[in-house]
Design a protein that fits this description.
Elements: E1 2-8, H1 15-32, E2 39-42, H2 54-60, H3 68-80, E3 83-92, E4 99-106, E5 112-117, E6 123-125, E7 131-133, E8 146-148, E9 153-156, H4 165-173, E10 178-180, H5 187-205, E11 208-211, E12 215-219, E13 222-225, E14 229-231, E15 237-240, E16 246-252, H6 255-263
Parallel strand pairs: 1-2, 2-3, 9-10, 10-11
Antiparallel strand pairs: 1-16, 3-4, 4-5, 6-7, 8-9, 11-14, 12-13, 14-15
Helix pairs in contact: 1-3
């Protein structure tokens, strides 16, 4: 059994207020979970901020060694005695002018034990007037990452990755029974696809899906869907948020992973 919480955020463009906003809701999440050694808190994609425009994003990004989010969330993981997955922050790279869209996993001692760079870039024309080209600003990652979090193996992914089933099958084959999908889904794609995609990834891999989202307006022209979700290996929605910042939580019975995979073993095959 592991107790998990999704933190749903509404960040802006300024790093300091965004870290304060996230810290407040992470503390609220920690207070809602039962006291145990098996607790996981997950925040959305771009916990550090959603910045308008490529040049502003590049100018505001910091390298890992200088990023205040590292110290802030390390301390918070230790204080809450929880595994803490920061869905992603923008990280300046030494060998590329573009940035990394990077998840950070802290253990209950506050140690940074794993990170994952988003592999699939959101290069789309959503409605004809909402065009995104994430690859102009962010370099795609090239590694599939899972991590031992004590009670379970946690698979890491970010937002648009959810449309690429092969990644999730690879995570399941690597032993992940819980897969995180921190996101900042647009409203049009969220209404049409968010729940369907998350439930599909849960069902086809026999995994729990933990999917915190950004919500609301971040700057003029950028609005996200919210509706963070926690889903069972059978595709049941265990908890769902609305469109406001807040916290949802659930207790995950990990025996259900083996049960689902034995019942429908399709996850083993390509």
């Amino acid at each position: 059994m592991i107790d998990v919480a999704c933190v749903q955020l509404n960040v802006g463009e300024e790093l300091g207020p965004n870290l304060d906003h996230a810290s407040e809701l992470i503390a609220a999440a920690a207070s809602t979970l039962p006291a145990s050694d098996n607790r996981l808190i997950v925040t959305p994609e771009m916990t550090s901020g959603i910045v308008k425009g490529r040049e502003r994003a590049l100018a505001s990004a910091l390298p890992m060694a200088e990023h205040p989010a590292i110290i802030r969330f390390s301390e918070q993981a230790a204080l809450s005695r929880s595994w803490l997955l920061i869905g992603s922050i923008s990280v300046k790279l030494e060998d590329d002018e573009r940035l990394a869209n990077r998840s950070l996993l802290f253990n209950p001692d506050g140690e940074l034990v794993a990170h994952y760079d988003k592999q699939h870039m959101f290069d789309v024309d959503v409605t004809g007037d909402q065009v995104y080209c994430e690859s102009n600003t962010y370099r795609p990652g090239d590694k599939t990452v899972s991590a031992d979090i004590g009670a379970a193996t946690l698979g890491l992914s970010i937002c648009y990755d959810v449309r690429f089933p092969a990644l999730y099958r690879a995570l399941a084959r690597a032993g992940a029974g819980v897969i995180a999908v921190p996101a900042a889904f647009t409203v049009p794609t969220g209404k049409a696809h968010w729940s369907v995609l998350l439930r599909a990834r849960a069902i086809e891999t026999g995994s729990f899906i933990v999917a915190p989202g950004q919500t609301g307006e971040h700057h003029p022209g950028r609005v996200t869907y919210g509706h963070s979700m926690i889903i069972s290996p059978w595709g049941e929605v265990l908890a769902e948020a609305d469109d406001q910042p807040g916290v949802i939580s659930a207790s995950l019975d990990l025996a259900l992973v083996d049960k689902a995979r034995k019942a429908v073993p399709a996850w083993q095959f390509d």
